[in-house]
Amino acid sequence: MSTLPQTPQAQATPQYEYLTGVVERLTFHSEESGYTVARLKTSQSRDLITIVGSFANIQAGQTLQLTGLWREHPQYGAQFQVTHYRETKPATITGIEKYLGSGLIKGVGPVTARRIVAHFGLQTLDIIETQIERLVEVPGIAKKRIKMIQTAWETQKAIKEVMLFLQSHGVSTTFAVKIYKQYNDAAIATVTNNPYQLATDIYGIGFITADAIARNLGIAPDSEYRYRAGIVHVLGEAAEDGHCFLPQAELVEQVVKRLSIKDHQPNSRAIAQLLVQMGMEEQLIMQGHREHEFIYYQPSFYYSEQNLASQLHHLLARPVAVDLPRVLNWIERFTQAKGIELSAQQQQAVEMAASQRVTILTGGPGTGKTFCTRTIVALWKAMGKSIVLASPTGRAAQRLSEVALMEAKTIHRLLEFDPKTMKFKRDADNHIEARAIVVDEASMLDLFLAHSLLKAIPPDAQLLLVGDIDQLPSVGPGNVLRDLIASEQIPVVRLTQVFRQAAQSYIVSNAHRINSGQYPLLESVSLNPNSDCLWLGAPEPQYGVQGIQELVTDVIPQLGFDPARDVQVLCPMTRGEVGTRHLNGVLQGLINPPSASKAEIKSGSIVLRVGDRVIQQVNDYDREVFNGDLGTITAIDLEEQEVTVQYQERRVTYDYADLNEITLAFATTIHKSQGSEYRVVILPLYMQHYMMLSRNLLYTGLTRAKQLAILVGPSKAIGLAVRQVKDAGRYTLLAQRLITQLATRF
Ligand SMILES: Nc1ncnc2c1ncn2[C@@H]1O[C@H](COP(=O)(O)OP(=O)(O)OP(=O)(O)O)[C@@H](O)[C@H]1O
C-alpha cells in the first residue's frame, strides 16, 4: 500500500521585514504587469539582495524602502518578496549620480548626471526640485534641455505620489501599478472620488477589493456609488452561475446581503428605488415579467439575448430552395456506395439539413451524431456548398476535424477574433465566407458566443448545430441549445437509437442508464478489470486518494495504458481531499516526480516541473492560448525566467509573472473537461461533493472516457449523483423571445 501524503501544515503568520537599499540593476521588469526581479545593494550585506515584486517604474539607482517577506527560492536561494515600497531620495554623491543617470529622467544620461552632480554635490536633487533654472550653470546644458528635464522630473514625482497614496490606503503594489497605468495622473482623483470605478475599469479588481479600498478611504457604506457597484456585482455573480438576468426580489435580497456590513444594512426599498433609477438611466434594462413582476438585465446581456433571437428569426425567415427528390436520390446512392444504412432518425436529419436553414441534431453517446454529421457534410459538398466546421473549444475542434476528415476551427478562430480590439472581425458587416456551417459541441455555446456566431452567418447560409443537451450547460451565461430546442421554433432531430457497436460499451450504455435515472452497471476493479466501466468503492476520501494512486501506479499500466499520456482524473470540485488541487500534488509525485534532470519552479502554492501536464486558466489572446487548453511543460529557463509549454499545435512561453495563467492538470474539474475526450478517465465522487453532484455532471464526466472509465467513491455518492437532477435552472428568456419573434413572422 502506498502511503498517504501529509496534509499541509497550518501556515504560520508571515514575518514582515523592512529593507532599505539602492537598486543596482533590473534582472527582469514587465512593462505590462510591473512584475520585477531586481538586485538591491544594502548597507547591511556585502552581497546584492534579490527583490521580487510589482513596481510601477523602477530604475537602477533608485533608493527604496521596502516591506516584505523573505522566502527561499529552490534555484535562486533567498529572495525578498516585496509587498510595499516607497522611494526615498538617494543620500550619497554616487547614489545621486546613479539615480539621475539611470534613464529615469529623459534628457539626462550618465555623463550629464556626473556633470550636474559634480557642480551641485549633495544639493543636486533639491536644486532640481526648487531651482531647476540653475541647471544652466552646468557646462553643456542648454535651456531647451532644462525644460525637458523639468517635465520628466514632474512626471516622476507624480508617479511617486500616486504610488504612495495608493499604498497608504491599503492597495497592494500589484494593484497600485495597474491603477496608475490605467489612470495616470488622474489616479488619485478617480480613486478618491469613486473607488468602485476600479471594479469596472481594471481587470483583477473586483467589487470586494474596490469596497476594501473604499472603506479605507472612508467612503460611507450607504454611498450611492457603493450601492450601484453592489448591484452590478450581484448581477455579475449571477452571470457566473449562468443567469442572464435576475428577478427584482432576488436581486434586492442578494444586494442587501452583499452590502451589509457590521454597522450598516441597506434598506430594501432604497435598493429597489435605485434599480428603477438605474433602469431609467439605462445602466440596467428593466423588463416586466409574468411571474416576477420585474426583472433586471445588464444591458449587454439583454441586447445579446434580444439580438440572438432576432438573428435567428431573420435566418429562419428565408426558406431554402431544395430539390428534395435529388437529395433523396443522392442519399440512396451515397449509402449504397459506402455500404451503410441510415436509421430513420438519421435519414430525417440528413433530409432536414438539406432543406432547412437551421437544424439542431442532438442525442446521447453512440447515437450516431458524428456518423450523421459526416453524411450531411458529404451531401453539402456534393451540392457544391462551401462548408466550415467549428467547435467552441480547441480540443473539440481537433476531434471534429479528425472524425469529419476536414479542417475544423474554434469558433473564435472562425470569427477571426482580434485581440487588439477584443472583437470578432467576422460580424454582421463581414460575414463568414461559407454557405454551410457546422457547429459541434453546441451545448457549450453561451449567450455571447452564440450571438457573435449568429451575427456572422450569411443570410443565404445553412447552419447545423450538433450537441448533447444532457451534458452540463455552457460555462458562460445562458442555456442556448436547450432554449433553442425548448422554443420549438427550430427543426430538431433527436437521435435516440444506440448503435450496436456503441451499445457494447458500458461507458455508452451506462451514460444512457444514468440519463434515465438508473444506477450504472459497474464492475469492481479487483474482480473484473476487463470491463470498460469500473468501480473502486473506496468509502472515505482518504482511501479514494490512496486508491487513485494505486490505479495510476498498478492497475492502469497492467491494463496496457500509459498513466502519463492516457489518464485524466476528473473531479467535481477543486477543493477538498479528492479535489483537483490536492490530487494534482499527489499525481504529480507519481507521474512526474522531482528529478535532477528536470528543472522546476514554485508558482504560488504549487511546483511546476518540466514534464508536467498543465491547463491554461484564462483566455490569453496574445499568446493565443485559451481557457481549458491542455499542454505539457517542455522547458523552464531559470536564467531567462521563462516557462515553455507545448500545446497541441503551439509552443508558448510564459514569463514567471504570468505563471498564474497555468496550473497542474493531471486532475481537472468535470466542468473544464467539456468538449474533451480521454482514453482513460478516473472519476472520484464523494459526499464531500454533495452540492455539486448531479446527473449531468456524472454523465458529462463519464462520457469523456473513450476506452476506460473508473468511478471512485461510495455507491451512496454515485446514487446521489444519478438521482440529483439539477435542471440548469438558469434565468434566460431566449426561448420566449424566439417564440414571440417567430410568432409574428406570418
Ligand atoms: N447508421 C449506422 N449504421 C451503422 N453504424 C452506425 C450508424 N450510425 C452510427 N453508427 C456507429 O455507431 C457508433 C456511434 O456513432 P457516432 O460515433 O457517430 O455517435 P455519436 O453520437 O457521435 O457518439 P459520441 O457522442 O459518443 O461521439 C459508431 O461506431 C458509428 O460508426
Automatic annotation (TrEMBL):
Annotated GO MF terms: 5'-3' DNA helicase activity; ATP binding; DNA binding; hydrolase activity; single-stranded DNA helicase activity
List of residues binding ATP: 366-370
Keywords: ATP-binding, DNA-binding, Helicase, Hydrolase, Isomerase, Nucleotide-binding
Top-level taxonomy: Bacteria, Bacillati, Cyanobacteriota, Cyanophyceae, Chroococcidiopsidales
GO cellular component: exodeoxyribonuclease V complex
Primary gene name: recD2
Family: Belongs to the RecD family. RecD2 subfamily.
Short name of one Pfam family: HHH_5
Protein name, entry field: ATP-dependent RecD2 DNA helicase
Cited function: DNA-dependent ATPase and ATP-dependent 5'-3' DNA helicase. Has no activity on blunt DNA or DNA with 3'-overhangs, requires at least 10 bases of 5'-ssDNA for helicase activity.
UniProt xrefs under NCBIfam families: recD_rel
GO biological process per UniProt: DNA recombination
HAMAP family registered for this protein in UniProt: RecD2
